[in-house]
Amino acid sequence: MRLLKYLLVGTLFGIVMTKSEAISWFRIQEMFRFQSFHMYGIIGVAVVAGAIMHWWIKKSGFKNVDGTPIEFADKPNTYKASIFGGTLFGLGWAMTGACPGPLYTLVGHGLWIILVIIASALVGTFVYGAMRSKLPH
Amino acid sequence: MLEFISQPWHWSVSGVMIALVMFLLIYLGQRFGVSSSFKALCSIGGAGKSFEYFNYDWKSHDWLLLFIVGAVIGGGIGSTILASPEPVQLSAATIADLTELGIKVPMTRAEGSGYLPLDLFNFEMLTSLKGFILMVVGGFLIGFGTRWAGGCTSGHAITGLSNLQLPSLVAVIGFFIGGLVMTHFLLPIILAL
């Protein structure tokens, strides 16, 4: 029962990803070519609405479903990891036209070839975990 | 009603809905970040025996695994019951650029929904050099890059930026450096292979 809620929120996420067209390989190409405002509009509105939400939660002391005050953990100050890892991800994003959330959503479209991309992403994750101590962070 | 929400959504509606998903996860006591699921899946596969990075209690991510199962279901609903009557409507400039690169842009639903260029992304293309690079190398970079950066579009671009995290801004700058280099310099070379 506890986990059913996440299944429902995930289902909403998959619908939003599909109807927003943020999972379209073509839309990602359009974004990286600066030929439409569509993707910038989506991300921009989500960030602004999210910023208002973060501000309001902190200000009001809004509690989560368990009655615990919500605290936000800061991202670690690993700037080298952010820029190097981020750039590698950006290359992959423009190749496959999908980031992790959209990859799962596209499987639901019946596009089974995406499972190959997810399997490769898991190999990439494994190799990162294996050589993590040798990489700058 | 069904017809109304089956239209492609305006970007402002989509943006608000993404923020709502983030809010619901925070309200339920979690956070919005999809690429952590790759780490959890590697741990379930036993990677924790070999490498410290995967040696953690993946059950702390059980909710995220249900979330991604939901994303698959949502994709199924979005592409059937709520499917748009027309394929994704791109700008004329993008259609022209992609056509010049030899990529077919679907103009009718019979030609495709406009989510994936099916001529490039299919099982036969896996054995070609460009298909292998785009799918297998591309997927590898997504896994390796997001875990190194500590997040993807959901964790850094949406959650991190909206919580004013400087490491997330740096990561998003990286996303765009990589995406722009690929789109404008490397992709034309790969597609010509």
Number of strands of chain B: 0
Outline the low-pLDDT stretches of chain A. Answer: none
Q: Which percent range describes the beta-strand content of chain B? A: under 5%
The helix-strand sequence of chain B is HHHHHHHH
Helix content of chain B: 55-70%
Helix/strand structural class of chain B: mainly alpha
Global outline of chain A: globular
What portion of residues of chain A is helical? 55-70%
Helical stretch tally of chain A: 6
- The count of strands of chain A amounts to 0
- Kindly, what is the distance between the CA atoms of the first and last residues of chain B, rounded to a whole number of angstroms? 47 Å
Bin the strand percentage of chain A: under 5%
Describe this protein's structure.
The complex is a heterodimer of chains A (137) and B (193). Helix content of chain A is 68%, strand content 0%. By secondary structure, chain A is mainly α. The radius of gyration of chain A is 18 Å and the shape is globular. The termini of chain A are far apart. Chain B is 59% helix and 0% strand. Chain B has 8 helices and no strands. The chains are: A mainly alpha (137), B mainly alpha (193). At the A-B interface, helix 1, helix 2, helix 3, helix 4 and helix 5 of A face helix 2, helix 3, helix 4, helix 5 and helix 6 of B.
